[in-house]
Amino acid sequence: DIVNAPPAVERKSPFRVALSGGSSLAPRLKRDYRQRLGISLLESYGQSELGGFMVMGAPHDDPQTLAVGFAGRPLADRLAYIGDADGQELPAGEIGEVLVTHGFFDEYRNKPEQTAASKRGGVLHTGDLGISNEDGYIKVVGRVSEADTARQRGGFLREVEDTYYEHEAVQHAVAVAGANGVVGGFVELKAGQTTSAEQLQQFVAAQVPAGLLPQKTIILDKMPRTFSGKADRLTLSQQV
Fold first, then answer.
1. Residues β-bridged to residue 143
2. Residues 6+ apart with CB under 8 A from 19
3. Tens digit of pLDDT for each residue in 86-96?
């Protein structure tokens, strides 16, 4: 909303840096901040169990690394890595669970079994799937609960959303699966931009595996939001 607002002047922002959290950022948004506002949009990633974020981008990060969706490196007091089902670190480029070595919570109140499951092996199991590169940057691709479905589809729904964002007319995009597993795409267009659902569908179809392609694309007047400002995925999934 900020970078696409009418008062936004190319590379004449009064800000030095911007910080985002709560949801993964599409690479295009980071590019827009650099190109239009002349500042870095830093992505943070974390959980309530950590008391905040544990991965954060930096202004000096390589734009090419950010261009493929990596958020940043783990912070010194919230070290994290990508692990397999046994908690062993995976090589760069392999998908696994994001695990945090220290600096996390003690317990879920009155939920000993959930606490034990989340802290098995002495690390925090975030429930998020991600990959790391050789420089230690982390990219979150989905939830552990999505792993089997993602293998069947040929990828994660985040890939669909990032692709929608690459269309010049799109301001907000969400890809969700309905109760029957069918994928639907929802977009809100930039002010003054026009395109059709069919054109957007074709745009995405040319760039994602067939198993990930939404059954339909719906253009919304306004993206529904939760109280925290995130896209209301639950409401949208009921419309697929």
1. 128
2. 41, 42, 44
3. 999 999 999 99
